Structure formats: structure tokens, C-alpha cells
Amino acid sequence: MEAVGIVIDVGPGSSGSKVGDLVAYAGNPMGAYAEEQILPVDRVVPVPPSIDPVTAASIMLKGMTTEYLVQRCFKVEPGHTILVHAAAGGVGSLLCQWASSIGATLIGTVSTQEKAEQAKNDGCHHVILYKEEDFVSRVSELTSGKGVDVVYDSVGKDTFEGSLACLKTRGYLVSFGQSSGAPDPLPLSALAPKCLFLTRPSLMQYTVTQEELLESAKDVFAKVASGILKVRLNHSYPLSEAAQAHADLESRKTSGSVVLIP
């Protein structure tokens, strides 16, 4: 669902891209595991000369997801205190880098000491090893019982109730993934005691128009070019070895971004 390539043909009446342009896309339609792909012209974005094509391919989905989470789903501002689950993950890592550059205080949860070091390098001020300590209690301690302004939760079922408990009055829970499964149903009345906000966003709904798409990608590429966002491109495979890439992913032999090269 994300790729970078060179335009080799343009349909009749199309404008905005021309043969020879380096372009990228993220989202629908699926089909990036191919040497050639037909895409709607309004779904591709130009890749600036300052961005290496492999870097662009490795950051499109994660970077644009980070952009809408930090700038539009909840507007992070200097002084905000933020909890990021899976802080060393693909989106979590970029989210910490971006939010830290704004001036927010970052609390991240991770599973290992190695990931804790990465989260700190990405801008986390406090890192919680959730297998060793209760993250709800630790967040309460770190915030003197006040709670955080926003929780970014890509884990889902295992962290959902705890994430709500970590929020301050009128805080925001942004549930943008469910790696541990879908959260249990929540009655609206559960949000009432602290007047909480809950949203379940997706990238597709934040890049509905071509203008939104182009602005999001432009902002991501600018952050990469300026050094604010650093991509961990640790693995590349020939396109013919896509199955091996998936096997390595599933067995946790990889870290950072994985790119297939046609």
C-alpha cells in the first residue's frame, strides 16, 4: 500500500504528473508489490530531489500517519504531555521525534530495554517498560496525578482501558491501531467523569482530497529533509524475495523499515 517509482506513462486528460517524474503513493489501491502499477493521478505525490527514493518508500505510510496524528487529529503544542504506546514502533518512533521537536513532553511505553534506548533517542523524556511496571500508575506518578493531554494508542485491547485512565480532564484518546486486538465495547457514560474525547482515525480519512494528500506528504518530506524525522532503514530485499521479507517480519528478525527493490 505504499511505493515510489518513476512515471512511465500518463493517461489521456491527466495533469500534475508527467513521464519521468519520481512519485510516491500511500494507501489505496493495494498492489505495490509489482514492477509496474496503474494509479489514479490524484493519488500520487511528487518526491523532491532532496529525498532518496528508498527513504521516501520507507516513510510514506508511517510518516503521513504521524503527520495527521500530531497536526490534525490532535494538535500537539509546546507544553503538552503525551503518552505514546509502542514508542519504538514504526509510527511510534516518528511520532516521538515529531512531537518532541514541537516542544511536548513525551512518555513512551516499550517492551524491552533496547527499545527504551531507541525511544529516548527519538525524544522520549520518560520511558516505561510495561512488562515490568504498571503504566497507569507510572503515568500518574510522572504527571503528579494530573494525567496526560493525549494518548496515542496503536495497541488496542491490552492498553485501551489503561489509556483512558491516564488522561487528564478533557483529554484525548487517539486509538489508531489494534495490534493486540480490538478493544472491548465502551459505553459513552464511561467518558463522562472526565469529559474525555475518543477518536478512531485512519490515514485514508485524513487524505480524502488531493490537496490534503499533497500537503501531508510535503510536510513529511520537509521534516525528513530538515533532519527532524530520521528513518531507520535497516533491511532491503529484492521484490522477488517478498515472501522471505514477510517471513522475517513475522519471526521478528527485522527492525525499522523494510523495503522491496524491483
TrEMBL record:
GO CC annotations, alphabetized: cytosol
Keyword terms of this UniProt record: NADP, Oxidoreductase
UniProt KW NADP keyword: yes
Entry superkingdom: Eukaryota
Gene Ontology MF annotations: mRNA 3'-UTR AU-rich region binding; NADPH binding; quinone reductase (NADPH) activity; zinc ion binding
Domain Enoyl reductase (ER): 1-260
Pfam families noted in UniProt: ADH_zinc_N
Keyword S-adenosyl-L-methionine applies: no
CDD domains linked: QOR2
UniProt protein name: Probable quinone oxidoreductase
UniProt source species: Lithospermum erythrorhizon
Lineage, uppermost ranks: Eukaryota, Viridiplantae, Streptophyta, Embryophyta, Tracheophyta
